[in-house]
């Protein structure tokens, strides 16, 4: 376990440095070296008190904090972002909205505030849910139009991948000098799909560090978590998102093993899992998970150097 510098010595960006988009047009709020830990505070639906004073939940949004410039990151590289710690508040919120969510029947506008005590979400009516804090939005600035913070894409963004937890890493294709990293949208817990529109949305903070992987060719984000490699695909619907996630995993296995596409595809059919990350936003996200033991080489194989001790 790495011992971090005292909080006062670690660079930190408060949630007042909120951004509604992943943009290359904003000045960096932090500049960090490779391997240097830093903390980002994150806003939630409860930030500012509007959630509990208005029922117009559709007017609320969850921005990201940033951007953070990483020294040595350049277009054509990939950025490995290690998630070291996620701290969450003792309250969370959820909403439903008409016309939103993954259900066939429409849902009414509703809000729900929960308490978080002793590692459990007190959902109500005697139901408790174990917390599993995660980062819903993490990405870099594209070289071009600035996607809304609620959009998932090649830059990362609103992936809502529940595997982005403390101890995991996200690898992102660098688009602009310095990478310009943003993160936010912390969840106390989320199920695959985030089917009602939100997870248990919480304020909090996340400690990250970054490493540059020079000349790494990635089309979209890759998550390393729990001994698995996870590709994230996005699309206008789940079919398109699944194809992107499968194509990306296929390309990783072909490059790693030197196999024909057909043999790699058979391995995925036997050993990989396809699941929904989220199906409720403007673009859906699907993940393909394959154990790292099927890879031979860094940064995906189990022999990848421990960046925490580098």
TrEMBL record:
<dbReference type="InterPro" id="IPR004304">
    <property type="entry name" value="FmdA_AmdA"/>
</dbReference>
<dbReference type="Pfam" id="PF03069">
    <property type="entry name" value="FmdA_AmdA"/>
</dbReference>
<protein>
    <submittedName>
        <fullName>Acetamidase/formamidase family protein</fullName>
    </submittedName>
</protein>
């Amino acid at each position: 376990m790495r011992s971090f510098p005292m909080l006062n010595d670690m660079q930190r960006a408060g949630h007042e440095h909120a951004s509604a988009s992943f943009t290359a047009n904003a000045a960096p709020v932090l500049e960090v070296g490779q391997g240097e830990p830093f903390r980002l505070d994150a806003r939630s639906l409860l930030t500012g008190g509007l959630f509990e004073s208005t029922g117009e939940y559709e007017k609320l949004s969850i921005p990201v904090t940033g951007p953070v410039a990483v020294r040595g990151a350049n277009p054509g590289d990939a950025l490995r972002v290690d998630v070291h710690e996620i701290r969450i508040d003792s309250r969370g919120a959820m909403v439903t909205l008409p016309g939103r969510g993954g259900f066939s029947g429409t849902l009414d506008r509703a809000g729900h505030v929960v308490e978080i005590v002793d590692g459990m979400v007190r959902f109500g009516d005697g139901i408790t849910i174990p917390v599993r804090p995660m980062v819903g939005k993490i990405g870099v600035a594209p070289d071009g139009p600035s996607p809304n913070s609620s959009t998932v894409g090649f830059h990362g963004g609103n992936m809502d991948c529940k595997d982005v937890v403390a101890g995991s890493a996200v690898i992102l294709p660098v688009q602009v000098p310095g990478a310009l990293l943003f993160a936010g949208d912390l969840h106390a817990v989320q199920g695959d799909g985030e089917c009602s529109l939100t997870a248990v949305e919480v304020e909090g903070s996340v400690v990250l560090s970054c490493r540059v992987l020079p000349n790494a060719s990635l089309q979209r984000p890759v998550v390393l978590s729990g001994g698995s490699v996870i590709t994230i695909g996005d699309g206008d619907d789940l079919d398109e998102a699944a194809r992107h996630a499968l194509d990306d995993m296929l390309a990783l296995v072909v490059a790693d093993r030197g196999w024909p596409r057909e043999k790699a595809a058979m391995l995925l059919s036997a050993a990989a899992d396809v699941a929904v990350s989220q199906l409720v936003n403007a673009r859906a996200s699907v993940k393909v998970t394959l154990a790292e033991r099927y890879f031979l080489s860094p940064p995906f194989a189990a022999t990848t150097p421990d960046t925490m001790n580098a």
